[in-house]
Design brief:
Oligomer: single chain
Number of domains: 1
Low-confidence stretches: 9-25
Helix content: 10-25%
Mean pLDDT: 85
CATH class: Mainly Beta
Largest sheet: 6 strands, antiparallel
Length: 161
């Protein structure tokens, strides 16, 4: 009886490396995140970017810039989408930025996308892939109120590798 327990234990011990070798070692799960527009903040203390509910809107009369921090917890950006509601004749202009610092130098990759003007529906601004960097963020120049309607940033979706 002791011999059969030893034999089974040995068989299991020998099978584990075989099974492990059949599994790809470089398989990574996609890392997807969604942020409400309310993570964005105005560029200064006098900013007209206001957060309400899950979105960030420009309630002022002229363009203002919203800054949106994004969590980096994987190697690089595979894709991103910023959803905006443009209520103005002017476009919302968003830039996705991936940056790294080394000493006194900063390197970055950027991509800019613009809305297509006044729309009753949300517009998705799609961004491509980015190389590995230390951190990510987005900035959006949001036009001021058009009559009674404010333009806003609704959400940001980020897919990492």
């Amino acid at each position: 009886m002791t011999l059969s327990i030893v034999a089974r234990s040995l068989a299991v011990a020998l099978a584990i490396p075989v099974v492990a070798s059949l599994c790809p070692s470089d398989v990574k799960a996609a890392d997807s995140k969604s942020y409400p527009g309310s993570v964005c903040r105005g560029s200064s203390g006098t900013s007209t970017i206001q957060v309400s509910g899950g979105w960030a809107a420009n309630v002022g009369g002229s363009f203002d810039t919203a800054h949106c921090p994004l969590v980096r917890d994987a190697t690089s950006i595979a894709s991103a989408v910023i959803s905006v509601h443009d209520q103005s004749a002017s476009n919302i202009s968003c830039t996705l930025i991936a940056e790294s610092e080394s000493g006194s130098s900063v390197t970055q990759d950027t991509e800019n996308q613009n809305s297509s003007g006044n729309s009753a529906t949300y517009q998705n601004l799609s961004f491509g892939s980015f190389a590995t960097h230390s951190y990510y963020y987005a900035t959006c120049a949001v036009p001021g109120v058009n009559g009674v309607s404010a333009s806003d940033i609704s959400s940001i979706s980020l897919n990492e590798n």
